[in-house]
Design goal:
CATH architecture of the domain at 1-155: 3-Layer(aba) Sandwich
Largest sheet: 4 strands, parallel
Number of helices: 10
Helix content: 25-40%
CATH superfamily of the domain at 1-155: NAD(P)-binding Rossmann-like Domain
CATH topology of the domain at 1-155: Rossmann fold
Shape: globular
Structural class: alpha/beta
Order of helices and strands: EHEHEHHEHEEHEEEHEEHEHH
Mean pLDDT: 94
CATH class of the domain at 1-155: Alpha Beta
Strand order of the largest sheet: 3-4-5-10
Length: 330
């Protein structure tokens, strides 16, 4: 909208609608909402007919990796097959529509390459990653077979205060905020040794837009080129609160993945050279932004203020029943 776009957004009808992120960003009234379902190609065709778009950005997925192990078939349909339905809908309605597919660094899995770029072989290690790879390759196929402007951004971890509480980054900053205010005694996590390339989501969205403005469609890795462990993230957040993380963090094997990805680090040189894009927000700054926002929210909550937010409605993970996962020796 800041770029002069008229923005349409699709949403899946639920008994309890959830638009808190749009409300938090103060753009709820500016987005034209169209009900749709990724599993229903008819609704996708209808959405294209109503919006008559110049550009389509597919950021939808069943994106929490652990859930993909619990619901692998649903993940394959939503994260993978649905992308083919979108591409096929565009091909029938107007093949001149530009299409962006949100690919994922998880597609690299446990590759032996230490700095992953656009030419690094993929080795998915989860149903989510496999579905993302299918969608990624279908995007390439439609681009080549039908001369469509279809591109993928291979995004490494991109975080913000709008991240869902099921994701480890927000789970950490929200948990530390609660602990610092005396609302919680412990933070329960899984694998602290996993290394990720953590970036700031708003910057990555700028990169996505730049990709879509190219004259020739192409795929790009979007990353910071740095890697930090989950433990690094934990320590940064607790340091901001003035607390020793070792006194508050507990490890539970149920939060380990059945097949872990140990290390991801993106090589963004192509994006820098072609798009003129480079991440500016450092790892420490990212953690600070997220922690301070969660701390602010909890203080507002304690003051009885009303505002769009997810934490009070999020159930305790102790209520979730999942199969036991044995820790793998790596």
């Amino acid at each position: 909208m800041g770029k002069g776009y008229k923005v349409y957004g699709t949403f899946r009808r639920l008994s309890t609608p959830n638009f808190w992120r749009l409300q938090n960003l103060d753009i709820y009234s500016k987005v034209h909402l169209i009900p749709a379902d990724l599993l229903d190609m008819g609704s996708l065709l209808e959405a294209l007919s109503i919006s008559d778009p110049d550009e389509v950005y597919n950021l939808a997925a069943q994106s929490f990796v652990s859930t993909a192990f619990e619901q692998p078939i649903g993940n394959a349909e939503i994260t993978g097959l649905a992308v083919t339905k979108i591409l096929e809908s565009i091909r029938h309605v107007n093949p001149k529509i530009k299409f962006y597919q949100a690919s994922s660094s998880e597609m690299y899995g446990n590759t032996n390459v230490k700095n992953q770029n656009e030419n690094t072989p993929f080795s998915p290690a989860s149903p989510y990653a496999a579905a993302k790879l299918y969608a990624h390759e279908m995007t390439n196929i439609y681009r080549d077979a039908y001369d469509m402007f279809a591109v993928s951004g291979i995004l490494f971890n991109h975080e913000s205060p709008l991240r869902g509480l099921e994701f480890v980054s927000r789970k950490i900053t929200n948990g530390v905020a609660e602990i610092s205010l005396g609302l919680k005694k412990h933070l329960v996590l899984g694998n602290l040794k996993a290394k990720r390339d953590w970036g700031y989501a708003p910057e990555y969205m700028e990169a996505i837009h730049k990709i879509m403005q190219l004259k020739k469609p192409d795929n790009f890795v979007i990353a910071t080129g740095e890697t930090h462990t989950v433990e690094d993230f934990v320590k940064e957040a607790f340091d901001l609160a003035g607390l020793n993380w070792k006194k508050y963090v507990k490890i539970n094997k149920r939060f380990f993945r059945p097949l872990e990805v140990d290390y991801l680090k993106g090589d963004y040189k192509k994006a820098e050279n072609t798009l003129g894009w480079k991440a500016k927000i450092t790892f420490s700054k990212l953690v600070k932004i997220m922690f301070e926002e969660d701390l602010k929210r909890w203080n507002m909550f304690l003051d009885g203020k009303s505002f769009p937010w997810d934490a009070p409605l999020y159930p305790s993970e102790s209520k979730f029943l999942t199969r036991n996962i044995k820790k793998r020796n790596v």
